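F.,

This is the one I mentioned.
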């Protein structure tokens, strides 16, 4: 999808591996600020540096605190950056999308920003989602879908926007898997 580099968006993606973040950053032509679990702040240097550049860390068990942290980030201004949500809230260990959390939809509705669906495929095969494993060589596909306007949805019906986000990520995921199968298909 063609995105305006001078606008902010709410990016929403599936999550399968620790490799998702570098894969997305490597192809995103847009400055991103990730919404991430607070446990990542305990990684030496990483947590400090990530906070300094404006990433938002939340306690996933504290919904009100998480909402406040995200609202505070918007209040400080995005300065051309966009917020990025792994909508499933955790890494999926299977091929199916997990249920989406509502945070990305609420952020889009409260700010009027468009949602950009993203799908990553292949990262799980390169780096397993749970536990410690070495990298295994392989292709990773990242597909950006068309932006979803927040207008037309209401905060009290945010589940409709969540469903639209999930559907758009699912469609992008099918495209990403198609790209992978074309890369990994034996030459005929």
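My design for it:
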């Amino acid at each position: 999808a063609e995105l305006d580099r001078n606008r902010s968006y709410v990016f929403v993606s599936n999550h399968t591996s620790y490799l998702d973040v570098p894969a997305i950053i490597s192809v995103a032509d847009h400055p991103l600020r990730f919404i991430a679990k607070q446990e990542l702040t305990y990684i030496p240097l990483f947590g400090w540096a990530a906070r300094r550049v404006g990433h938002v860390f939340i306690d996933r068990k504290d919904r009100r605190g998480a909402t406040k942290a995200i609202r505070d980030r918007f209040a400080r201004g995005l300065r051309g950056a966009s917020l990025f949500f792994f909508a499933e809230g955790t890494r999926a260990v299977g091929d199916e999308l997990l249920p989406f959390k509502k945070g990305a939809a609420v952020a889009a509705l409260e700010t009027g920003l468009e949602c950009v669906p993203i799908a990553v495929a292949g990262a799980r095969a390169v780096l397993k989602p749970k536990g410690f494993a070495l990298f295994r060589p392989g292709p990773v596909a990242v597909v950006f879908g068309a932006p979803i306007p927040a207008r037309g949805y209401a905060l009290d019906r945010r589940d409709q926007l969540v469903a639209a986000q999930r559907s758009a990520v699912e469609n992008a995921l099918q495209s990403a898997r198609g790209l992978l199968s074309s890369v990994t298909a034996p030459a005929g």
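The chain has six helices and six strands.

Talk soon.
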